[in-house]
Write a structure and sequence with these properties.
One of its GO terms (molecular function) is dihydroneopterin aldolase activity. This protein has about 120 residues and is of the alpha+beta class. The chain is built from three helices and four strands. The chain has one domain: GTP cyclohydrolase I, C-terminal domain/NADPH-dependent 7-cyano-7-deazaguanine reductase, N-terminal domain (GTP Cyclohydrolase I, domain 2, 2-Layer Sandwich), CATH 3.30.1130.10.
């Protein structure tokens, strides 16, 4: 099994429990790790997972719908990817909220989920 990683996908979204988060929105960063069976893989796109199509699924979910919790967004992304790409064996999704409304200094906040078939 091999792994494909899309790291640091940045989008503007309106996720969060506070009303101003829904109204103003913020930057969200998504990392996706995809485990794909490579043992019978050749050199054709049909034999793997198209990461441009993965990007599109992530973009639509992050920008097209509001989630109150980044955990729920991560779960929805993992489920959508497994449904859309039958070659995926396992997926890990991290949703970063670098500008979370925390009254203090911090580097990052993220939620992570992992799903497999």
């Amino acid at each position: 099994m091999g792994r494909i990683v899309l790291e640091g996908l940045e989008f503007y979204g309106r996720h969060g429990v506070r009303p101003e988060e829904g109204r103003l929105g913020a930057r969200f960063v998504v990392d996706v790790e995809l485990w794909v069976g490579f043992e019978d893989r050749g050199d054709r796109l049909e034999e793997t997972v198209d990461y441009a199509a993965v990007y599109q699924v992530v973009a639509e979910a992050v920008t097209g719908r509001r989630f109150y919790l980044i955990e729920a967004l991560a779960d929805a992304l993992a489920q959508a990817l497994l449904e859309r790409f039958p070659r995926l064996e396992r997926v890990r999704v991290r949703v970063h909220k670098p500008h979370a409304p925390i009254p203090g200094v911090f580097r990052d906040v993220y939620a992570e989920t992992e799903r497999s078939r």
